[in-house]
Design goal:
3 helices, about 30% helix, single chain, globular, alpha/beta, 5 strands
């Protein structure tokens, strides 16, 4: 089975998943992006995405590996769930951007 429905969940302050979402569709592929402001909001969003036929969920770098594992378990491991990660060098740049030098992403 070919991948045809992909979703990305992005976490950032002030996002409301009922409002901050977009679906990009071509005849061959659909990408759904939903924005949340907390990990707790991501759990029902992931289940909703499964009901929409999503085959793969990717989480932005704002989620921890533990949160990705928890989300994966909450959806019964029905689809792969990945999380964006940065190299050590890029983590240093990201820490400056986020103004948190001790940040681990």
């Amino acid at each position: 089975m070919a991948l045809t429905r992909f979703a990305m969940i992005i976490k950032g302050p002030g996002y409301n998943p009922a409002v901050h979402r977009v679906s990009l569709t071509s005849p061959e592929f659909t990408t759904i992006v939903v924005c949340v402001s907390s990990f707790e909001q991501a759990l029902p969003v992931a289940n909703e995405l499964l009901q929409q036929g999503v085959q793969l969920i990717e989480l932005c770098g704002g989620f921890t590996p533990d949160q990705a594992s928890t989300l994966r378990a909450s959806i019964g491991q029905r689809v792969p769930v990945g999380v964006v990660r940065y190299s050590v060098a890029e983590q240093q740049h990201l820490a400056v951007l986020l103004d948190n030098p001790s940040s681990e992403t």
